[in-house]
Every structure is written in C-alpha cells, then in structure tokens.
Specification:
Elements (H helix, E strand, L loop, with lengths): L9 H11 L6 E6 L4 H4 L3 H4 L4 E3 L5 E3 L4 E6 L8 H4 L14 H10 L3 H4 L3 H25 L6
Parallel strand pairs: 1-4
Antiparallel strand pairs: 2-3
Helix pairs in contact: 5-7
Length: 149
Amino acid sequence: EITHEWSDGIAAEELRIAVRDTSPDKHWIIFDGPVDALWVESMNTVLDDNKKLCLVSGEIITLTAQVRMMFEVSDLAVASPATVSRCGMVYVEPGSLGMNPLIDSWLSGLPESFAHYAPAYRDRLRTYCYDYIHNSVMFVKKRLHEIVF
C-alpha cells in the first residue's frame, strides 16, 4: 500500500544515533556492497566539508567530528567523479582478499618457539586451515541464515 508518508532507511537512523552520542567515541557507518548511482550522489553533501546529509523528508543531519563513513565496494563503475573526489581510496589487490591471505599472515606471526619445529608442521597446519576453515565458512554461508542489520 502506498501511503506517501516518509519512512526512514537504516542509514538515516544509524547516522541519527551516531550524531546524538556525546561521548568521545568514534562511530563508523560502513556501507558494504555495490554503489548505486541514485543513492550515492545524495551522499555528496555529507562527504564534503559541510558534512550534512539532506534527506528527502527535508531533514538535515549534520555529522559530528566523531562520525566516520566508509564505503567498501568492488568497483566505482557508477560513482561519479564528484563522489570519488570526496573520498579517500584504498585499493586492495584481489589476490589479497579471502581467507588464505589471512591464514598466511597468522602463520607468519606465530611465535619463534613454533618455528623451531620442522617447516613441515607449518605446511601441514596451513593445509588444514585452508581445507577446514574454508569448508566451515562455506557450510555457514550455504546452510545457516546470516543476520544482517
């Protein structure tokens, strides 16, 4: 049913909660997923020096110094130069993504006492982690319901 009444989205609600907090704690609002040209362009005013989000309802939410926003995207195909120029960029090589680079990093940080053992143990542990952790994550993704809010 179309009521023509304004209804807030999760981004507006989370930003309101963050700007109301008077503690010195930082608040990170993270957008993880593809960029849509329709909504990302409306973020330009919040990303520039004004730091004001102008909602369709007419409400303006002004960000405090404790509020940070991050966009985690796979590409910038539909993001305009105006939006991109307002953001800092960090590029991560596709080969650095996933579980295996995290496992390798963890293994390289093991204590020296572990390195004393034969490298074969480290290789075996790497193989077990690659096989079992990957399979466990795939099981969770396929068989369990993930709650996202």
